[in-house]
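ingest -> validate -> predict -> emit
validate: passed (alphabet ok, no gaps, 290 aa)
predict: started
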Amino acid sequence: MHDAERLTRDFIPEVSAGPFRIAPERMDELLKDVFNGTPWEVEFLPIKANCHADPKTSHITVSFAALLSLWATAHAGLLICNQAAQAMRAKQTELDPETNPSVARALELVRAAQGLIREKSTPWREDLPMPNPTPPIGSHDWAVNNLFLGAVGWILLHEIAHINLNHEEVTSDSITQRQEHEADRWASNWIFDKLQDEPTRAFRIFATATALTWIGLVDDIRRGSTTHPHASERLGKCFSLFGGDAESAGLEFATYLVKVFFTPSIKLPDAETPEDALRDALISYSQKPR
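emit:
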């Protein structure tokens, strides 16, 4: 058994419930109107880091390597965002991993996630944080899991969308790219359309950005794909669906993710609002060589 399976198999019940957890106000609607009363099967496999839906069979597969690399991405993202928020309020201009142990640890977790995306059997270093499926409520591990499961919820809703929208499994690259954008839009609309509470919206923005950050790591490792739009384009289109306050902490945290994960330096944003900062970060990300 690879480390990815060993360290994430106890999360299976909560991961399977992810589409319900991320938008509990639509739980009954998801069960009745999308699943027709019975949730579709999610199978967990020791294959390369990936999530996949088969529209013909309503069958979804999730790899353990995807789960562990996504958990590492969420953990790194939470560390980075906490440190960046503190630095911004202290009027600092950048994060320095040489002097900030939390940022250095976050970058180690990013490298661990990248390793699992390259090779599903990559061992998990013993000096790295270990996933804890049952942490005390309110603890750091609990916050990491909450973000991880929120990101999982969006990713699974994306896969559910492929089935619900009757997408074609084998088709042209242009149609596949269109279908990916449609699934992103469906998943994002699902969790934002009926939401009025701004703190909850901020968390869901952060979770969606975390999911797409993981997709961006996959893009970087696998050199993108002609069948899937690049993560920068996907995050940009989802950005237009977030809604809410231009000063949202979710937009602020999404900006930190994009800057630290995908731009050459770790300079902190300089913009009037988090909305402006995220827009600027996405422009820089989209111009990065692929």
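The longest strand covers residues 59-63.
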